[in-house]
Write a structure and sequence with these properties.
The chain is mainly β. It has two helices and 34 strands. Helix content is 5%, strand content 44%.
Length: 398
Amino acid sequence: MKTKNYFLTLILSAIFCTGIFAQNWVPQTSGTTQNLNSVYATSTNNAFIVGNNGIGRKTITSGVNWTNMTLPTDWSPTNTRNSVRFLNLTTGFTVGQGQEVSNTTTSGSTWAFLGGGITNLYDCYFTSASSGWVVGDIEVGYGFLYNQFTSNLIQIPAIANKVLRGIYFANSTTGWVVGDGGLVIKTINGGTAWTQQISSTINQLNKVMFTDANNGIAVGNSGTILKTTDGSTWSSVTTSFTQNLKSVYYGSASEVWICGDQGLILHSINGGNNWSQEVSNITENLNAIHGFGITDIWSCGNNGTIIYRSGTTSVFDLQLTTNISIYPNPCTGKFSVKGKSDIKTIEIYDVFGEKVYATSKFEQQKSNEVDLSDFPKGIYFVKIYDKQKFYTEKIVMQ
C-alpha cells in the first residue's frame, strides 16, 4: 500500500505542478430540479451540495455520480439549506431556513440536528468542531450574527437593519462578515468584538473569501468586486460585467474564480486584479463555487444545475500543442490520443496507482482510440512516454 500511495503521489504531483490548466466547464447530473445554493469540496473526489426544499447531494467520484445526502428532519424536512462547509474530510456543517444548523462527523453519511429558531441563516464558518459563527436575516432590528456554541449574539450599530450574507475566517481569530448596503465588518479576536470597514459601495455583498489574513475578495450585486491586500482597506475592481455575483473561490493565492447570475464564471490569474470570462455553457443563475485547489472546481445553481471544471483537462494541448492531444475529457469510456512526436508507450492507472491498461502500439500522426468502457466510472491517470520524458493527464470517465 505504501508503494501505491507513493506512486499516486508522484502522479498527482506531476499533474498539480504543471502550472498550466485549460478552462473547460462541463455539466453534471444532480438528480434534482431544486435550486442548489452551496457547494464545498474536501478533495479531488469528494464534494457536497445543499439547496432548496431540504435537498442534499454528495459525490465521491468527482461528480461522475451525485447521490442523495439525507439531512435532518427534526426541524422541518423541507427547510432550505443555504450553506455547507467542512473543517476536514469528515466534519462539516450546514445552515439554512428556520435558523437550522446541522453537522456531520461521517463525511456526510449521517447528519445531526444542532438547533433551530426563527431566523433564516445564509452562511456559516466554523474554525473548529466546537467554535463557529452563523449569519442571516434581521432579528429584532439587527442582522443575525451568532456564535453557535457560546450563544454569543452580536448586536452593534453597524449591522442594524442589515441582512448578513457571508462570513469567512482566515484563522481562528481574524474574520469578516459581509451583507446588505455594502456592509463589511471584521474581528481580530475570534468574534468578541467587530469593527466596520469602509467598502465604498452600497451594493449588496453576498460572499467573501480570504487566502490569508491580508488578501481577500468580496463579491456582490451589479457586478461588484472588492479586493483588499491588507485585510482592512477595500478597493473596487472594475469589470464590464453587471450580473449579480454570488460566490468567490480562491484556488490558490493567484487563481480565483467568481460565479454569478446568467451562468457567469469569472477567472483571475493574478489574485483578482484582472478578470476574464470562462465559458460555462449554461444560462442558469449560479449560486456557489468551490473546489479542491485549482484542479477540481464545482459551481451549482438554479434548477439543479451543477457544472464542473477539471483543471487538467486539455493540459497537453496547452503544453505540447504540436505533439500530443487527449480528447474528449471527461469521456464515457472511449477517448483518443493523437500524437505527432514518437510516442513509445501509453499507460493508464487508477486512483490507487494500479496499472489497468498499457500499450506500445502508437501510430504517429494518427488518432488512436483507448477504450475503457469495461472499467468502473471514475478518475484515471494517463501516462505517456515519448522516449524523452513522461507526461501525465487526469481523465474522468462518466
